[in-house]
From TrEMBL:
UniProt-recorded name of the protein: DNA-binding transcriptional regulator YbjK
Keywords per UniProt: DNA-binding
SUPFAM superfamilies according to UniProt: Homeodomain-like (SSF46689), Tetracyclin repressor-like, C-terminal domain (SSF48498)
Gene3D superfamilies xrefs: Tetracycline Repressor, domain 2
Ranges annotated as DNA-binding: 17-36
Length: 172
């Protein structure tokens, strides 16, 4: 799946084939299709792998620590850029594929639930809505950084951008 993520990020949705993943992983032709019979299964497999990696990274960060969250976003926009490009490719593709859409909705719900849990622990009112808003804002900030749609932001810039989001999310 890691080879599929790299292939998707570098070649786009059209370049992601079972054969291309086999080549990128350095495995025998047919290996990827043995485990992921259809393109749909391959796409869902990539999305699941991305979810596992992101969940582990999010869990390792103190979600109350603005600097730590900004550092994670910076990591995703730089060292983790290929993973985020693959994620955004899948997000757009999900608008046309119901099975992928369902997998994406599970993933998005998982991340919103993680944020909601953090907010609920600090007795924030309306934690569910605020968590959804916070995740959406962070996703937008991340998208802006990964695709280069806005100005490149340093770690300090990211912290400044996150400050009002955190103040709104954690306000009691």
């Amino acid at each position: 799946m890691d080879a599929a993520i790299v292939t998707l990020a570098r070649e786009g949705m059209r370049g992601l084939t079972h054969r291309a993943v086999d080549r990128a992983a350095g495995v025998a032709e047919g290996s990827t299709s043995y485990y992921f019979r259809t393109r749909e299964a391959l796409l869902v497999g990539v999305l699941d792998r991305l979810a596992d990696l992101s969940t582990a990274e999010i869990s390792a960060v103190d979600a109350h620590d603005l600097a730590a969250v900004a550092g994670l976003i910076e990591h995703w926009a730089t060292a983790g850029r290929e993973r985020m490009l693959a994620r955004f490719e899948l997000t757009l593709e999900a608008t046309r594929r119901p099975q992928l859409r369902a997998a994406l909705e599970r993933l998005s719900g998982h991340f919103r639930s993680m944020a909601e849990e953090v907010l609920a622990e600090t007795n924030v009112p309306d934690a569910k809505r605020r968590a959804a808003d916070l995740v959406a804002h962070i996703d937008g900030l991340l998208f802006d950084q990964v695709v280069g749609a806005g100005p490149a932001r340093s770690l300090e810039d990211l912290q400044r951008a996150l400050t009002p989001l955190f103040m709104a999310a954690f306000a009691v």
